[in-house]
Design brief:
Number of strands: 18
Order of helices and strands: HEEEEEEHEHEEEEEEEEHEEE
CATH architecture of the largest domain: Roll
Largest sheet: 7 strands, antiparallel
Helix content: 10-25%
CATH class of the largest domain: Alpha Beta
Length: 308
């Protein structure tokens, strides 16, 4: 009986020691789980990693790149952060995992957060980082990034296609992957590149009855003018509008990567949100030419220093 008790106590002590957190010079509590990598990360190295920040007290994720597009950057050891995971990067290798804890109280003292309904005194943020891969240089890193972006977009398009198929919504796809349900086709020329479309719209999340943005009530409102191809709106609008003429009514199903992408549009639109827009095109025409900017006195072009 005594021997079994001793074994149990030893097992508990060993388990606890394996789960202990160390402290960085700035006081960051962290734990590193080693992978198969041999060489430590070094200055100038291009890195691919996943990162997540979570509030355990609320069991809510603040942000995460897991299941989406990883984070890419070139390691600059001259500008490593203080009280964040970057100060640990020269201690890890490809394949390693970092767990860390950020005290809300410490972040408050550093002026990085304020106590509010999300961040409470005495709480902490739990973070985790997976070092996925390193690259010889930036060209290889960018090639990998572009592959991840395309994979994310294709995943979103597949999710929208599954959604519209389930709902029995007949759509056509733009070259970039916007799904467009044509409700009323309209007449006349399409709102192609260079044309101005006057638009009434209502934007919502999938399966949401509440609009996050709209310029119409019961189909009436002040149209929003869009010069297609001028990049004044999200890419999903640019693509969808090209299918529509004056009088058209449609619904756009837009993948996040053609809307507000990994950043979202906080606080209204979260990261990686697929969106739908009810669209009415009230007019399509050639836009009026822009008025020439007035010259500076003496004929000097605006923004150009004198004597240049």
């Amino acid at each position: 009986m005594i021997k079994n008790t001793i074994k149990l106590l030893l097992a508990i002590v060993l388990f606890a020691s394996c789960n202990q957190y160390e402290k960085s010079p700035s006081g960051l509590a962290y734990k590193i789980t080693k992978g198969n990598g041999k060489e430590k990360l070094k200055h100038g190295q291009a890195i691919k990693l996943n990162i997540e920040y979570k509030l355990p007290a609320k069991d809510s994720i603040l942000s995460s790149s897991f299941e989406h597009i990883p984070v890419y950057f070139v390691l600059d050891t001259a500008h490593l952060g203080k009280y964040n995971f970057t100060e640990l990067l020269t201690s890890v290798s490809e394949g390693d995992k970092i767990e860390f804890r950020l005290s809300i109280d410490t972040l408050k003292k550093m002026g990085m957060v304020e106590y509010n309904t999300i961040f409470h005194k005495g709480d902490f943020i739990a973070g985790k980082v997976d070092i996925i891969k390193t690259f010889p240089g930036q060209p290889e890193m960018m090639a990998d990034y572009n592959k991840e972006v395309e994979a994310e977009k294709q995943k979103e398009i597949a999710a929208l296609k599954a959604y519209t198929d389930k709902k029995g919504i007949k759509t056509q796809s733009t070259p970039g992957g916007v799904l467009v349900e044509i409700i009323t086709p309209g007449e006349g020329p399409k709102a192609d590149s260079g044309m101005q479309a006057s638009v009434l719209y209502r934007g919502a999340f999938l399966d949401s009855k509440n609009a996050f943005d709209s310029n119409m009530v019961n189909g009436v409102g002040q149209p929003y003018d869009v010069v297609v191809g001028s990049h004044g709106v999200i890419p999903g609008w640019e693509e969808g509008l090209k299918l529509l003429s004056k009088g058209a009514k449609a619904r756009f199903f837009i993948p996040a990567m053609l809307a507000y992408g990994p950043q979202g549009s906080q606080p209204v639109i979260p990261p990686y949100a697929n969106l739908s827009f009810d669209i009415q095109v009230t007019d399509v025409k050639v836009p009026a030419p822009k008025a020439a900017e007035p010259a500076m006195p003496g004929g000097q072009p605006q923004g150009q220093p004198a004597g240049q």
